[in-house]
Hints:
The complex is a heterodimer.
Chain A: H1 2-28, H2 39-46, H3 51-54, H4 59-67, H5 72-88, H6 92-105, H7 110-124, H8 131-151, H9 156-172, H10 176-185, H11 187-192, H12 203-219, H13 230-250, H14 255-274, E1 277-278, E2 284-285, H15 290-307, H16 311-321, H17 325-332, H18 340-353, H19 357-367, H20 372-399, H21 401-410, H22 414-431, H23 435-455, H24 465-482, H25 494-500, H26 507-527, H27 537-551, H28 554-567
Antiparallel strand pairs in A: 1-2
Chain B: H1 10-14, H2 23-50, H3 52-71, H4 75-91, H5 96-111, H6 119-153, H7 156-160, H8 166-200, E1 206-213, E2 220-226, E3 235-239, E4 248-251, E5 261-266, E6 269-274, E7 285-288, E8 290-294, E9 300-301, E10 315-318, E11 324-329, E12 340-346, E13 348-351, E14 362-368, E15 379-382, E16 388-394, E17 396-398, E18 404-406, H9 407-411, E19 418-424, E20 429-433, E21 438-442, H10 447-473, H11 478-493, H12 495-502, H13 511-520, H14 532-554, H15 558-561, H16 564-569, H17 575-602
Antiparallel strand pairs in B: 1-2, 2-3, 3-4, 5-6, 7-21, 8-9, 8-11, 10-20, 11-19, 12-16, 12-21, 13-20, 14-15, 14-19, 17-18
Helix pairs in contact in B: 2-3, 4-8, 5-6, 5-8, 6-8, 6-10, 6-11, 8-10, 8-17, 10-11, 10-17, 12-14
Amino acid sequence: xxxxxxxxxxxxxxxxxxxxxxxxxxxxxxxxxxxxxxxxxxxxxxxxxxxxxxxxxxxxxxxxxxxxxxxxxxxxxxxxxxxxxxxxxxxxxxxxxxxxxxxxxxxxxxxxxxxxxxxxxxxxxxxxxxxxxxxxxxxxxxxxxxxxxxxxxxxxxxxxxxxxxxxxxxxxxxxxxxxxxxxxxxxxxxxxxxxxxxxxxxxxxxxxxxxxxxxxxxxxxxxxxxxxxxxxxxxxxxxxxxxxxxxxxxxxxxxxxxxxxxxxxxxxxxxxxxxxxxxxxxxxxxxxxxxxxxxxxxxxxxxxxxxxxxxxxxxxxxxxxxxxxxxxxxxxxxxxxxxxxxxxxxxxxxxxxxxxxxxxxxxxxxxxxxxxxxxxxxxxxxxxxxxxxxxxxxxxxxxxxxxxxxxxxxxxxxxxxxxxxxxxxxxxxxxxxxxxxxxxxxxxxxxxxxxxxxxxxxxxxxxxxxxxxxxxxxxxxxxxxxxxxxxxxxxxxxxxxxxxxxxxxxxxxxxxxxxxxxxxxxxxxxxxxxxxxxxxxxxxxxxxxxxxxxxxxxxxxxxxxxxxxxxxxxxxxxx
Amino acid sequence: xxxxxxxxxxxxxxxxxxxxxxxxxxxxxxxxxxxxxxxxxxxxxxxxxxxxxxxxxxxxxxxxxxxxxxxxxxxxxxxxxxxxxxxxxxxxxxxxxxxxxxxxxxxxxxxxxxxxxxxxxxxxxxxxxxxxxxxxxxxxxxxxxxxxxxxxxxxxxxxxxxxxxxxxxxxxxxxxxxxxxxxxxxxxxxxxxxxxxxxxxxxxxxxxxxxxxxxxxxxxxxxxxxxxxxxxxxxxxxxxxxxxxxxxxxxxxxxxxxxxxxxxxxxxxxxxxxxxxxxxxxxxxxxxxxxxxxxxxxxxxxxxxxxxxxxxxxxxxxxxxxxxxxxxxxxxxxxxxxxxxxxxxxxxxxxxxxxxxxxxxxxxxxxxxxxxxxxxxxxxxxxxxxxxxxxxxxxxxxxxxxxxxxxxxxxxxxxxxxxxxxxxxxxxxxxxxxxxxxxxxxxxxxxxxxxxxxxxxxxxxxxxxxxxxxxxxxxxxxxxxxxxxxxxxxxxxxxxxxxxxxxxxxxxxxxxxxxxxxxxxxxxxxxxxxxxxxxxxxxxxxxxxxxxxxxxxxxxxxxxxxxxxxxxxxxxxxxxxxxxxxxxxxxxxxxxxxxxxxxxxxxxxxx
Lengths: 575, 607
């Protein structure tokens, strides 16, 4: 009886298994040439999740995953622990071997590749004292990412990281001079990567290629870029071009090659400006469209104001009538000239006196109801265009768009190239202890810089160019120190130093220069009439003070860029 | 080579010395404690069943008979039983393990690449670890299932009806399984050796396109590179003839080996090619000394300073300060090398500022007589970070006054001691050292012998597992014995961690407390709110900790037996170290044999 019972029970199990197999069949039938397969197969296909879609199929990896008998998670945990332990105990060979095993166990876990490649390139490499050993591990990290890419074909994150490692790690590390040289000389690496000609073996150019592949993967192959900022993602190829141009000049390449490098950088930047980028709130923007959007807004605004001629002026006057004289003075003073008090008054009443398109449209509706619909339409359109312009401005600030746009342009100019070349030659001469030659070359260089600044006056206070030039002026001052001289009064970049000496490296020099200038002015006044009626030292000092307070107030700078909108009739929107 | 535990000389290990009981005394104490426990336990059980008088008599008789039987063991019968165990193992298709091993080696190539800077290290580590795990697994399966299966199928009666003693059955099994395991280990060893040799074998050619004249280098005519093979190249230079040497090629070591340049015939033309790799397998014989430090003020200290590394194996000395690392070596005489003293130094560099990136950090090394305090002239060197760097001090040296001195006569004390002093020259830079980072290089031993010494380490582990397995299988069923022995292996492999938990040095508390933390998802650091409940838990954990500490005292220290690292890093395994392993193994076998014997005697079948 018992035997029979057991037999029936087994039959029961068998039937249950068969029943369960039916839904399983519909769920997980594999895709064939003729059919799309079961639900799971279709889902995999739809989301590109099958192994073949993700990347290379590696029998080793599959075997190892099977060999863990379902304990892959445990094995992975143990191996990650082992990697940390090996790293702690400086057992690099075993660490790399453990990474190799991990890569077989979780080949499609992109974070693993990113994290561990970073670990090798950035953390392991610096454990070595010889820069050649360091380079070896930087390269191992890069190769690790490439391997990850084999398993995760066209993955934008890995492609972008490759660009970053090759660009930034090689080109920006403390050892970047040596790393860049080793990278150029690395025949074996380049032979495996398309055999580039020597002149193209620059890490920044190679990085640009990877960035472009990442962009292509997103744009053409519709891959997901993950949580990376779109601006950082899309500006990388152009930034690589900028960095390349900077790097070759730093290494002493000027003339046609440098100009061409900057030209290509400028073109790449413009391309970036044309790239549609989605704002975090949804709308698509082009960073290069900023002025277009502003003029579009202005055009709509004029159309809106023209609906009821004279209404705009009337409303503005009415609002002003409610303000105190101090308030009127505050908002009438241009942003850059406001005192601290005026600044806070203006900020306080901005909202009250703000004549938004909505308010204006409502007034139009009251005065001339027949225009109400049109006014509302225009007001909406204007608000939308303005919002878009504001988004573009914010993103341009994130990308430092204006700076790179103007830099890639002025760096192509004869004067800038000459300035860079002379300053480079001057530094070389200074290193060779030829201080007289260095002095002459520095002065030639700064003359050229002065001409560049004349041509592009906005560079003086863009917050970046000044810093770069001041570093060179420091080198010039060292040379002069060795010659027992001081920066002369006819030095053409005094204004730039006064504007940009944020770290107060030239405080004494500037003070002495001003004193000398004041004395010269006073003597001029006392002796003969001042030929140009130049200002006295007190005025100068006051100017300087107001300028430096401006420099230290970033919000004012922001306000400055809002001036365009203020002038166009509306106060800057509070952001 | 990194040695996180000191290599204690054999006799010092065995016999009581400063601060240590010595292995022998520890063994005797443990044996006595266990014997007492067994006697008391046995007496209590017997007393419950038969009353105190009978219990006393039984215990007495068991002990006396046991002692008699242990001395009456017949080697002939043990051998016969061992043969039986071998036959049984073969019948149970133990040789399948070979197939698995060969499969592992075949597929190892998928995971073991040669593009690491030290491929030999990885390969030796791998084959020795694979062999060890496999052999332990076989030992576990063979030893634990054999006796229970015999008892269950009653085939044991065919043995016990013969005039054999329980001790002989236990010993016979242990011997038989050890024999079969030894043969397997031998074959696996040969396979492993061949595998590593073949995996690492490669050659290069001279890449003639890279060969250039180098007039700026002294004594070098031409320099260039080899072709890229097995993921690496070697720098080559053709060195011109000097007074002491003929013209010849120098091949710079890379990936842990070098080659010789030879001319071969190819297509009727002479081609410069490189020989097979040389130096993948080495057995350096270091003589270690004792390390001490001087701090930045020149005061004596046991350790240098920490530079913030999580791993505190090395400690550091500050550059351009009185800080020194000092090693004292004894037994120094000209028998080491008549020409001078080969001192090998491994420096770990730590920079607090970039310095000159392309240049290494400079240090100075000199010898000093600990008695007379006479010093040799300092030798300035550029630190090769984390690489063995040989500093050969010729016999004729100068002291700090510039007078000529003899190394062995003037710098070695009467007791045969010498000190090596090292300092870092550059300010803001640090040198890091541990005790094994400086040694006197003795004549190299045979790498092949060294490889077999590592196999001996595995053999010891195997024998201990067999002994535990057989002993367990005398009183519990096969699967239980397997789990018990398996647990012993697992805990033994992680003995350090186990001891840490037993001593309460870990985070997260003892067994029960950490289980509660896991369930309640509480992290390892946060303290529990004080209360009765947690008080009880902690009390139970304390008891468990005492039990764990007792277990730890008898737990085999498997990591100590694993000497793969020596072979992988090319260092000789000291004979004394192997002897320690063998003696430890003997102690386990002896103890487990006695335990197995008494347990088997308690079973119905063997009475």
